[in-house]
Amino acid sequence: MGVLRIRNMFMLAIAMTVVFLLACGQSDEKISIEVYNQGVDVADSGDYQSANAVSTKATELNPDDALGYFNSGLTYALSEQYGKAIGNYTKYIVLNPEDAEAYYNRGISFYYTGDYQLALKDYDKAIELDPNNQSAIANKKQLLEEHPELKP
């Protein structure tokens, strides 16, 4: 069975799940959680395109679904679509401004787009929120070694 056929079958299964849950009187929030959980399962399989489609559906059903934005940011970054990753991490950060991991992850995406100043800003924010975030500390150090012009 081809990848496209599997992806289409998966998307049909999600659509059927949403219709079933709506018919059972479930709220959009509960449905978005179910859809989000399916997206995590798909992301774990490495099918980031389908995982992004699922996360997008979850956030359409519940625009305050912060985890949907975070998951989309992660899967877009893993599929090297850094601009989309940044957009989703930014939406997540609006809903959860104290999450150091989100700033760190968005910083990585900024780094890969070549926006080193914004990457540095996000690493700094991640370290401010979690002074023990060794990954953010290491990435900041590496960035400043690669681009000494960014040093204050």
Observed structural traits:
152 residues; mainly alpha; 79% helix; disordered N terminus
Describe it.
The protein is an all-alpha fold and 152 residues long. The chain has 8 helices and no strands. The longest helix has 21 residues. The N terminus is likely disordered.
Summarize the structure.
With 152 residues, the protein is mainly alpha-helical. It contains eight helices and no strands.
Order of helices and strands: HHHHHHHH
Tertiary shape: globular
Distance between the termini: 55 Å
Unreliable stretches covering 5 or more consecutive residues: 1-33
Helicity level: over 70%
Mean pLDDT: 76
Helix segment tally? 8
In percent, how much strand structure appears in the residues?
under 5%
What class, by secondary structure content? mainly alpha
Largest sheet: none
Tell me the quaternary state.
Answer: single chain
Q: What's the count of strands? A: 0
Radius of gyration: 18 Å
Write the layout of secondary structure elements.
Layout: H1 3-23, H2 28-44, H3 48-61, H4 66-78, H5 82-95, H6 100-113, H7 116-129, H8 134-146
